[in-house]
Specification:
Order of helices and strands: HHEHEEEHHHEHE
Number of helices: 7
Structural class: alpha+beta
Distance between the termini: 58 Å
Strand content: 15-25%
Shape: elongated
Radius of gyration: 23 Å
Helix content: 40-55%
Strand order of the largest sheet: 2-5-1-6
């Protein structure tokens, strides 16, 4: 009878283990007002991030040129469009699709900034825009970021998305140095 009792307890324990969830967040191990948590909160507010997994990709052209020219912006737009076709991508923020307002003497344009602004003014606008520098574009205009919000924060889905992005870069954009 003790064997039956031990067997029943063993089966109940196995069944309980199937329902056990062991999800941990590094934040739970820090004091609530720790400086790293404050910095994390600040970054999340600046980039409008949520608790889902997000990817940040840095980009640099192999020719070491600025992104603030028609050729660079066109390449960035095509790349942003290609990556946004991934089913796990909810949203991508890049220079090529950054919305804002631009005013001329006669008109006010609202929408993707670099679609509306003449290319000769891109550098001036990027200097004065509060989000472009230092968040999306480096001081020398040669490095830019893609902020990618994912639909799923499942580790396997995130890893698969990263691998698919790597394939896109290597096949269609070998002249772009990237880091995920």
């Amino acid at each position: 009878t003790s064997f039956v009792l031990i067997s029943v307890i063993f089966v109940v324990c196995l069944w309980s283990l199937q329902n056990l969830k062991s999800e941990y967040n590094i934040k739970q191990f820090f004091p609530k007002n720790h400086p790293l948590l404050e910095k994390d909160k600040n970054i999340a507010e600046i980039f409008q991030l949520n608790d889902k997994s997000n990817l940040v990709i840095t980009l640099r052209q192999t020719n070491d040129k600025s992104w603030l020219n028609k050729k660079g912006m066109s390449k960035l737009k095509k790349l942003t469009t290609a990556l946004s076709k991934n089913p796990n991508v909810k949203n991508i923020t890049s220079l090529s699709n950054l919305n804002g307002a631009y005013e001329t003497k006669k008109d006010l344009f609202v929408g993707p900034l670099f679609d509306k602004i003449p290319s000769k003014n891109w550098s001036n606008v990027s200097q004065s825009h509060p989000f472009i520098k230092p968040h999306l574009l480096s001081k020398d205009n040669k490095n830019t970021l893609l902020l990618i919000e994912l639909n799923s924060n499942d580790a396997i889905a995130v890893q698969k998305t990263q691998l698919e992005f790597t394939q896109v870069f290597r096949s269609a954009y070998p002249d772009v140095i990237f880091a995920v």
